[in-house]
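ERR on first pass: missing label on line 2. Operator R.T. fixed the label and resubmitted. Corrected input:
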Amino acid sequence: MDAYWQVACHAAIPVAHCEHAHAIASRAQFADYNVSTPYGLICAPDTQSFTVDADLLASELDTHRRYLLRVAQLQLRDADLAEDVVQETLLAALAARAGFSGRSSVKTWLTGILKHKIVDAIRQKQRQPVILATFNEETDLDDFDPLFKDNGAWEAPPADWGDPENAFARQEFMRVMDACLDKLPPNTARVFMMREIMELGTDEICKELTITANNLWVILYRARMALRHCLEQNWFTAQPRR
Amino acid sequence: MLLHRLTHMLSCKEVSRLLSQGEDRRLTLAERLKLRLHLRVCTACMRFARQIAFLRVVLQRYRT
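pass 2 clean. output:
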């Protein structure tokens, strides 16, 4: 039984973060677990109830850790904070594993937990004036748009993408998509991920970020325009038809 | 006035904004009618509409 948890801890929690993990552990009410070094945390559970899905969950957590980090990183644009948020998510997942009901839903389940952790982190970040300043810049409602002529016609009309679904046949496509997401301005990316990956409602996002619906539409519009353009440049017109 | 609002042709820029907003809110009947009219005659915007729909599929894959 302990071995499984050793695996889980090795996989999910980098050594460097163990100090912090201790702090989170006490906050997340892991008080009744033994905390040991060097991997710090919950590696020696003292209750029987653990055994059930331990090995399954351990490998699942490892599988999804990179995805969660990626999502957190894209939204928070802060490697340390992303690491913390994912760690808290995994801990919360371990604490609440009884509520997890099967292999197929692990990712969804973890993403659901991550969503709350990210919203908390964003709420904290919102209080920092620096973030707000850049945020205002990105939500600027300036009507000038270089993609269109003065009369509102396309400056450079969208290219023919053929049947875009063919792109899924190539693994590189998702990497291009990743790179395109990375190129979005930080706050635009954050809002876009809240909407499209976390699937938060527009009301919810406006409330969290204290922006108007109009602001939100502009940000999401910019994000989609930028992604569309990036995919076109780097995939659909980048090389001979795939 | 109402007639004018309904028959006013949208520019490509307005169409692209409405198509994006259509992902986030329910468009009004007037907006949907005007969009349809524009898309029927504008190849560029029709492509754009398909590409936005494709983006939705990509993100769906990204999530799962």
